[in-house]
Amino acid sequence: MSALTGILFAALIVYGGGWYAGQWTGNFSLLLLILTVVTGLYWLAERFHFAPAREKAAQALEVADLKRRESLAAQGIARVDGDIIAAKEEVLRQPWWMDWTAGLFPVIVIVFVLRSFLFEPFKIPSGSMVPTLLVGDLILVNKFHYGIRLPVINKKIISNHDVQRGDVMVFRYPEDPRMDFIKRVVGLPGDEVSYRNQHLYLNGKLVDVKAVDAYYDEDSMQMRSRYEEQLGDKPHKLLVDMNRQQFFRPDRKDGPFPFQDQCTYNGEGLTCKVPAGHYFMLGDNRDNSRDSRFWGFVPDENIVGKAFMVWMNFSNPKRVGFFD
């Protein structure tokens, strides 16, 4: 078992090292599931086989020592050298390979349950959600807000709240489901979403925005106008250059995105009819976000959860708090 455990640890190190070095994209949910299953098997083996075997060996050692002492006493020898306490402790001691597998199982299973069904931490890697979220923000995502999903396969088994316009949602990137993206929900199934001349229209109506203040954008290192927009119950801030002319075209790497025929592109922008079971996503940093305008809709099965809190930013601890 020690050799097998060593091989498993070596495989884990190689997998983690290649992931860290960028040789391949890892799947933490799958890795955590495998670790839970493997350590769980070790825990069961320890509880029902190895631990009882060690206890039985320790009892046999006690019985052998008692018989030895009785035999010596029958010969008139009262004082017997040797103490089996240290030997018994050595027999009962859990081997290293069991300590680093079965011993970690309770911790790993707690992390697995919390991360799979309750809350999952993420780190913001880009500025597409500025000013709501900054690069380096460590956020929490509510995994059960939209319903309970099975880990790894992400299949919903229990429904909860419906997705609402204005939600900040984490989802599996449609071009590469191994990656997680975060954007704001703009269009729900059945909505007509238009983004023309730097303005957003929902079902033919202009979504009003109002300028609120100037904002220093660290990515571009310049002052930009910050606006307020309201898609759902609460307003949120966004960055957009109203004087900038942008041209949009589908540029999904693997070809036309699903339901691309529901979108029309022209010199002013684009208009899309959101298909059933899908959502249209935009970044709050409208001029610096690669989102549904480029790669299409997010299917319901790609939903990970609703982002709701910055729990830490080591460069700026004042960022800690809830957001809309």
What CATH first level of the largest domain would be assigned?
Mainly Beta
Per CATH, the superfamily of the largest domain is Umud Fragment, subunit A
Helix content: 25-40%
Oligomer description: single chain
Summarize model confidence as the mean pLDDT: 92
Structural domain tally: 2
What structural class should be given to the helix and strand makeup?
Answer: alpha+beta
What CATH architecture of the largest domain do you see?
Ribbon
Shape assignment: elongated
Query: How many strand elements?
Result: 18
CATH topology of the largest domain: Umud Fragment, subunit A
Which percent range describes the beta-strand content? Answer: 25-35%
Low-confidence stretches: none
- Taking the alpha carbons of the first and last residues, their distance comes to 51 Å
Count every helix, treating DSSP H or I runs of 4 or more residues as helices.
6
Rg value:
29 Å
**Mind summarizing the main beta sheet?**
8 strands, antiparallel
Secondary-structure element string = HHHHHEEEEEEEEEEEEEEEHEEE
Pfam family, one: Peptidase_S26
Catalytic activity: Cleavage of hydrophobic, N-terminal signal or leader sequences from secreted and periplasmic proteins
EC number: 3.4.21.89
Subcellular location: Membrane
Quick overview:
With 324 residues, the chain is α+β, with helices and mostly antiparallel strands. The chain has helices at 2-20, 28-74, 85-92, 96-99, 105-118, 292-295, and strands at 119-123, 138-142, 147-149, 156-159, 168-172, 180-187, 192-196, 199-202, 205-206, 209-217, 222-230, 235-239, 263-265, 269-273, 278-282, 298-299, 303-312, 321-322. The strands form four sheets. Strands 1, 2, 5, 6, 15, 16, 17 and 18 form an eight-stranded antiparallel sheet that branches. Strands 9-8-7-14-13 form a five-stranded antiparallel sheet, with no helix packed on it. The protein has a three-stranded antiparallel sheet with strand order 10-11-12, with no helix packed on it.
